[in-house]
Specification:
307 residues, hydrolase activity, hydrolyzing N-glycosyl compounds, 18% strand, 13 helices, alpha/beta, Inosine-uridine Nucleoside N-ribohydrolase, Chain A
Length: 307
């Protein structure tokens, strides 16, 4: 029986591929949308369209926070395209979102599937933070939270901050210190293990399936941007995180440490790791330090090979 998950997303390019993989790997009982990559209305449209494209209109979509809890933030159309799907002007989907706020849906689903529900959090953590603030006992009902977020030292949005943590550091701080069972996949690990090179891109393009064509279209600008900033190809952090959640043998190295998030000044969004257990904090998260790139890319090719 497939594990039950909520897919929490700021839907653009790689998020859509991560959603595609999640639908294959898990029983996705809900998709929750949060502010982040592009304008909120485009994120909603992208999620609804992706589900329709894959023939999964049965999966409910819940609209969540349209801004972070505090602070100034910005969208990153230069990374994902004006509407988040590369240069693809997708048609308007017929599927509609549910009439329930995402954080409320998370709370309700955690009660319905108590102690078996997992959250694939590949976006800013606003929705989950708001759910926790409304009902702190949710930590006892959610089995696992998988987070793509944070950076050791190599920020992709500021010198030190990864985008998801930078958009809503208050939410990240609340979730990470809330007592959830967390595995966290930082930016550097995804860059090292989830970069699709030119040769791999051509291999995906040559598959010429409905799914591989989707991949090429939505990630076109992501690929160009990644190369522009010095990467050898498009980076797919969300897809790697989902695959690690599905198959823990991808983890080649991890540590369990206390983590905090900086919420002030130029270092806002920075991930703080207590490497030497200086704080003696009992709240610790599993941090992935190395992942199996070969195994991840095999999973990706297998998913994209399907008609």
């Amino acid at each position: 029986m497939k594990r039950k998950v909520i897919f929490d997303t700021d839907t653009a390019s790689d998020d859509t591929i991560a959603l595609m993989m999640s639908l294959d790997f898990f029983d996705v009982i809900g998709v929750t949308i949060v502010s982040g990559n592009v304008k909120f209305e485009h994120e909603v449209k992208n999620a609804l369209f992706t589900l329709e494209y894959l023939g999964r209109e049965d999966v409910p979509v819940f609209l969540g926070a349209q801004r972070p809890i505090m602070g100034v933030w910005r969208t990153v159309e230069e990374v994902h395209g004006e509407k988040g799907m590369g240069r693809w002007d997708i048609p308007t989907p017929s599927k509609k979102p549910e009439n329930k706020f995402a954080s409320d849906a998370i709370i309700e689903l955690s009660k319905k599937y108590c102690c078996e529900l997992e959250v694939l959090a590949v976006s800013p953590l606003t929705n989950l933070a708001l759910a926790y603030l409304k009902d702190p006992s949710i930590v006892n009902r959610i089995k696992k939270v998988w987070i793509m977020g944070g950076a050791f030292t190599k920020g992709n949005t500021t010198e030190i901050a990864e985008f998801n943590f930078w958009v809503d550091p208050e939410a990240a701080k609340i979730v990470i210190n809330g007592g959830f069972n967390i595995t966290l996949v930082p930016w550097e690990v995804t860059e090292e293990s989830a970069t699709i090179t030119d040769d791999e891109w051509e291999k995906i393009s040559a598959l010429n399936t409905k799914r591989s064509n989707f991949f090429v279209k939505v990630n076109e600008i992501l690929r160009e941007y990644s190369k522009k900033v010095g990467s050898p190809g498009s980076v797919h952090p969300d897809s790697l995180t989902v695959t690690i959640a599905y198959d823990n043998t991808l983890v080649l190295g991890s540590v369990k440490k206390s983590v905090d998030v900086e919420t002030c000044g130029k270092s806002r969004g920075a991930m703080l790791i207590d490497w030497y257990n200086l704080t003696n904090s009992e709240t610790k998260v599993e941090i992935i330090t190395k992942a199996d790139s070969i195994k991840f890319k095999k999973y990706l090719i297998d998913v994209l090979s399907k008609a």
